UniProtKB/TrEMBL annotation:
One of its GO terms (molecular function) is potassium:proton antiporter activity. InterPro entries: Cation/H_exchanger_TM, CPA2_transporter, Na+/solute_symporter_sf. The chain crosses the membrane at residues 24-43, 55-73, 88-108, 120-143, 163-182, 194-214, 226-247, 268-297, 317-336, 345-366, 378-399, 411-431. This is Cation/H+ exchanger transmembrane domain-containing protein. GO terms for cellular component: Golgi apparatus; membrane. Its main location: membrane. It is a multi-pass membrane protein. Residues 35-425 form the Cation/H+ exchanger transmembrane domain. Pfam families: Na_H_Exchanger (PF00999). Gene3D superfamilies: 1.20.1530.20. Keywords: Ion transport, Membrane, Transmembrane, Transmembrane helix, Transport. It is found in: Membrane.
Length: 759
């Protein structure tokens, strides 16, 4: 083939870089990838604020770049997406979708389904049956209007067409569904368990039905269809037994990967080779290559997070380049201009309505059968109505197999975008965080050990009634672990040795490996990259060492959650309102950038405003130390009347008095000395430990206390302040922490009783 000078010299010799040349097809391809990626990122940025999945931005990018919008610009399509360039884009897109279905297969946890098989089968199948039946109904009209007698497409049996339309109506996008559950903090909830297990059943059933439809469309007779299905089933069993056992033998005999969870280069070669081999086989027998890739993904070992590490190796190139190209091509095939008759939009609205009503009703009925409340059942139905990625793949398979026309394809794409867009806001509306918190509170016994008295009924002696059933310890900073553990050791008495459940929160990103870990029910959660894993391993090692030295009953786990949901996720680990949620903040972090301070302040405020149990935040000025403090300062509010949070402060100070016998109580009072209070303090706190040295002083307001501290009249060296949140809210604590760094007192413990949330 002759190569012209202009094609070698490029734009310098006057070559048009967007002119397609068979000898250099990559030039236009690279431009197309740049354009597609940029458009997807631009659209995803505002949609991300609305908690919308990336697939919406990718399909919308295709619609905008296609004939519906920018394709109306003269020569835009002929220049940027000429027909001769489509095979190159399609090749990359189809390789990407094969790898993507392999990743989706790895998300399917069959052990989790077996553990929850009753709810999984009932919700999954009923949720499919109702929209499937509705799809069969509307398929008759679509077939008569758009398919029967269409001379531009090969003839097809109505039964094949009907099953495809029904499948397109009833599928649920499991990858998008799992991410929505994680972002809404529903993974650990009963709803999350039901929806996740039902979504897996829905996903598996949908792919099986789609394989049936494709085989029906590709086979020349019913006998051929039976042969295709038998060959597919035989291949699955071949992968499930000989191949899977051979892989396990290889891993155990020749590698250490099931222990480390880290796939080697050779293992990745074997897996990718197996994926393409399986895809090739299912393609040549007349199904579709994506089914072969999906089968291999389902059968990859899940030991020690192995599927998470395999996903990490693949997901970047797949999700950044290949999948956007695939979904943009899907969007390019949508021409809203073809929907130019009233009947077209009538069918579009009908498809949207039936898809939503069918999925919501199916989920509602099935969830109610499993014992959920009406509102929870409705939330299950709304979540199961999510379409997204899987629906787009199904529609593309149907379009390429010439089962549906481009006009019907456009209708279903519109339905997919609308139903996927509505899932998150509808779920938040039907099942908001406030309802979940109220529902959790209503299940608690109102006469638990914590105080539920009115302010007038509370006296100093009542602090002895405060009990903690367990402690939820939020560990996000290695430096503050010594102070937290020492505080907990001093709070425990010989009669109380409560369980300490430590959690380490990590930011949930858009990575599929994070989604796999977050949706996993395995309690042994580790970080999915070297930095995450190293940090959590260090925190776990330090916490475990301290727990062993101090003889504490403890457990620790790592949880992935969005940054703005840190507080909510921590609160959801609470089992009872008599629990204590304890967190820590290094005082130095409150003097950093304004953005960092704002994030910490928001988390601080959310912990105190939303937590329905006892909560405490330890602000440490001297991180990484374990000094034996000599004096504990207790600040009480309410102008001679004690609140429940004041009593929580006194309870903590009473426990600390066994180790730190020097106690100084500061009482907010506009009238000065109150002998009655002093006698109560003298009688109750002095009995807390041997040789307790008690001092009581009075102040008028917060500024009075701060000015006293700044003059060092409190003898602040190696001191600890314990104060109620209703006295010193975020701004005041920020001032105190900065003062603490100046005058060198160590810690500030801010607490709030759960009774304050009930009043």
């Amino acid at each position: 083939m002759a190569v012209t000078t202009s094609s070698v010299a490029g734009i310098v010799s006057g070559r048009n870089p967007l002119e397609y040349e068979a000898s250099a097809p990559w030039t236009l391809f690279l431009f197309q990838v740049i354009l597609i990626t940029a458009m997807c990122q631009i659209l995803h940025y505002p949609l991300k604020k609305l908690r919308q999945p990336r697939v919406i931005a990718e399909v919308l990018s295709g619609i905008i770049l296609g004939p519906s919008v920018m394709g109306r610009i003269p020569k835009f399509t002929a220049t940027c997406f000429p027909p001769v360039s489509k095979p190159g884009l399609s090749l990359v897109a189809n390789v990407g979708i094969i790898l993507f279905l392999f990743i989706i297969g790895m998300e399917v946890d069959l052990k989790f389904v077996r553990k929850n098989y009753r709810s999984a089968l009932s919700v999954g199948l009923i949720n499919m049956a109702i929209p499937f039946a509705l799809g069969c109904g509307i398929a008759k009209g679509l077939y008569s209007q758009y398919r029967q007698g269409n001379e531009d497409m090969p003839p097809i049996e109505f039964t094949t067409y009907m099953v495809f339309i029904a499948v397109a109506m009833c599928v649920t996008a499991f990858p998008v569904l799992a991410r929505i559950l994680v972002e809404l903090n529903l993974i650990g909830d009963k709803i999350g368990t039901i929806v996740l297990s039902a979504g897996i059943i829905n996903d598996l059933t949908g792919w099986i039905l789609l394989a049936l439809v494709v085989s029906l469309a590709n086979s020349g007779s019913g006998v051929n269809t039976v042969y295709i299905l038998l060959l597919t089933v035989a291949w699955f069993f071949f992968l499930a037994y000989p191949v899977r056992y051979a892989l396990k033998y290889y891993y155990k005999r020749f590698t250490n990967e099931m222990v480390t969870g880290e796939p080697s280069h050779m293992s990745m070669v074997l897996l990718i080779g197996l994926v393409f081999t399986s895809a090739f086989y299912t393609d040549i027998i007349g199904v579709h290559p994506i089914f072969g890739a999906f089968m291999v993904g389902v059968l990859v070992p899940r030991d020690n997070g192995y599927v998470i590490r395999v996903t990490e190796k693949l997901e970047d190139i797949v999700h950044i380049v290949m999948i956007p190209v695939y979904f943009v091509i899907a969007g390019l095939g949508v021409n809203l201009g073809d929907l130019n008759h009233g009947i077209d939009w009538a069918y579009t609205i009908g498809i949207i309505a039936l898809a939503m009503v069918g999925k919501v009703a199916g989920g509602l009925i099935a969830a109610k059968m499993n014992g959920l409340y009406w509102r929870e059942s409705l939330a299950v139905g709304v979540l199961m109505s999510c379409k997204g990625i899987v629906e787009i793949v199904v529609l593309n398979v149907g379009l390429n197999a010439e089962i549906i026309s481009e006009r019907v394809y456009s209708m279903f794409i519109v339905m997919t975008l609308i139903t996927t867009f509505l899932t998150t806001p509808l779920a938040l509306w039907v099942y908001p965080q406030s309802y979940r918190e109220r529902n959790h509170k209503s299940k608690e016994n109102s006469d638990e050990t914590a105080l539920l008295r009115t302010q007038e009924e509370i006296s100093v002696e009542n602090f002895q009634d405060v009990r903690f059933s367990a402690v939820v310890l939020l560990l996000n900073n290695i430096d503050t672990i010594p102070q937290l553990m020492l505080l907990l050791k001093n709070l425990q008495t010989s009669k109380e040795n409560y369980q300490i459940n430590a959690i380490h929160l990590r930011e949930l990103t858009t990575r599929t490996s994070h989604l796999l870990e977050a949706s996993s029910k395995d309690e042994a959660n580790f970080g999915t990259n070297d930095h995450d894993q190293g940090k959590f391993t260090s925190i776990m090692a330090i916490f475990t060492a301290f727990s062993s030295i101090l003889n504490m009953k403890s457990s620790i786990k790592s949880i992935l959650t969005p940054v703005d949901s840190y507080a909510v996720t921590a609160i959801e680990q609470i089992g009872s309102k008599s629990d204590l949620l304890l967190s820590s903040i290094p005082a130095s972090s409150l003097t950093h950038s304004p953005e960092g301070i704002e994030i910490i302040e928001n988390q601080y405020k959310q912990l105190f405003s939303r937590c329905w149990a006892n909560v405490g935040v330890l602000i440490t000025s001297q991180v990484g130390t374990w000094d034996q403090k000599k004096t504990v300062h207790c600040v009480l509010n309410h102008n001679n009347f004690l609140s429940s949070s004041d009593l929580l402060c006194l309870n903590i100070v009473s426990s600390l008095a066994k180790t730190y016998p020097s106690i100084h109580v500061h009482v907010s009072s506009s009238t000065g000395t109150t002998k009655e209070f002093e006698h109560q303090f003298d009688g109750q706190l002095k009995s807390s430990g041997p040789n307790v040295d008690l001092t009581v002083s009075y102040f008028k307001d917060f500024n009075d206390l701060i000015s006293t501290s700044s003059r060092k009249e409190l003898d602040t060296a190696q001191r600890m302040f314990v104060l109620p949140y209703d006295f010193a809210e975020c701004a005041e604590v920020l001032r105190m922490s900065r003062l603490g760094q100046q005058v060198s007192y160590d810690d500030i413990l801010v607490v709030k009783s759960h009774s304050e949330h009930s009043q």
